[in-house]
């Protein structure tokens, strides 16, 4: 997507990023896209303090994608260990619901992959996805992610992650090699 511009988020972007992430995953507005979690979780997916912490973290970067000056996507990258070759965490990934399906997510992931290699020499991108999101997991698999076999508990009782609408939520860990690495 040559019409996308990428840049690193600053503290001035925090409110816009919170709005973007919320619109992509929670509430009625999220139903305009396919990434909605509205049937699994109510409440907030993130807040200003959480996004500001990512922006301020020395071992993280929040990448923004703009089209014609409008924020259309974002993702977080975080160094997971010192030294070259460790996987980088990939998260806080969101695309505006009315822009989903147009290649923005794929372009942002490609940019994130390159950033992780350039910044930290990352050998892979690693992420967590709610296990019940088969459609989302299938999309990531089409982009080279594979399940690691690791599962992590959902943080029930911590409303910073939302209010679960079912009692069987958990995360699966997905990983893919960064561009230019094998296996």
Automatic annotation (TrEMBL):
<keyword id="KW-0012">Acyltransferase</keyword>
<dbReference type="InterPro" id="IPR016181">
    <property type="entry name" value="Acyl_CoA_acyltransferase"/>
</dbReference>
<feature type="domain" description="N-acetyltransferase">
    <location>
        <begin position="4"/>
        <end position="170"/>
    </location>
</feature>
<dbReference type="InterPro" id="IPR050832">
    <property type="entry name" value="Bact_Acetyltransf"/>
</dbReference>
<keyword id="KW-0808">Transferase</keyword>
<protein>
    <submittedName>
        <fullName>GNAT family N-acetyltransferase</fullName>
        <ecNumber>2.3.-.-</ecNumber>
    </submittedName>
</protein>
<dbReference type="GO" id="GO:0016746">
    <property type="term" value="F:acyltransferase activity"/>
</dbReference>
<dbReference type="Pfam" id="PF00583">
    <property type="entry name" value="Acetyltransf_1"/>
</dbReference>
<dbReference type="InterPro" id="IPR000182">
    <property type="entry name" value="GNAT_dom"/>
</dbReference>
